Amino acid sequence: MSKVRIGICGWGNLGKSTATEIVNFPDFELVAIFTRRNPGDLEIGLDVPVIHMDSILDWKNKIDVMMLCGGSKKDLPKQAPELAKHFNTVDSYDTHTEISDFLKAVDSSAKLGNNISVISTGWDPGIFSILKLYMGEIVPTGKTYSFWGPGLSQGHTNAIKQIEGVENAVQYTIPIESAMDLVRSTKNPDLAAKEKHERICYVVAKEPEQERIAEEIKQIPLYFADYDTVVNFVSNEELEKNHSKLMHGGNVIHTGKTGNNNKQVVEFSLKLDSNPEFTASVLLAYARATYKLSQKGQTGARTVFDIPPILLTNSPTEEIIRNLL
Question: Considering the entire predicted model, what is its pTM?
């Protein structure tokens, strides 16, 4: 049986992790990597062609699913609708408040090209989104809360790096423990964004630029403007030494009551040594579903809510039922 031909668009942390994790998906074959950088400058350590983005359409009939591994702030809003015209795609777009508009744009493009696209996969949005749906429908009287971290946020880090004068940066999302404890008490509090998390940034920049950069970071809408944000300026050596790990995680907590006023607390947590490797694995699982849908002739954009779990697996349905149900 021929393997599903995978392309990777973008060679940052997520693109590199997707290339690494594909070995755990025996039905996949990585056929090409696409980058905006000079391909000759990349040492990928794989026997796979590296192609400049300008030539990506030359591979239109050579790739079954294109993994879009760019950032959500600037890359995916442009790349995803454009590439959906020519390829089946999977992405991890994670700007929550803009997902509805992003879905419409990708859906229109995918239908024009008779392709299928699955958007906003990963763990939040993605796995956490599915769990919030399940929890909310099973215990409909309650409330659902998401807490992220402690960990390094790739999307927020990328947003900082876009600011002029920033040489390097990382951003940590820190959940506020007292807020989590209050939620677990089933009091169903109304919590503002800044009451649930704080943002800690470590930035490399020249001293004359630091005051302006710190203010610009704190004003970035959707990422930092609604949070208590601390910006620390450090040397590149300190950043590499103390802030190079890509750990992350989070909790979804749903609390409510059933029957005779019985309290119910449902909680799911992730603790990740490598955020990009886990996210890449989620994308690859949804790439399998994307390919199956394309084989059925389906077109347009989908979210994780639209994908039956059975499409994520390469195992026979009978085996899945026997082992897991």
Answer: 0.88
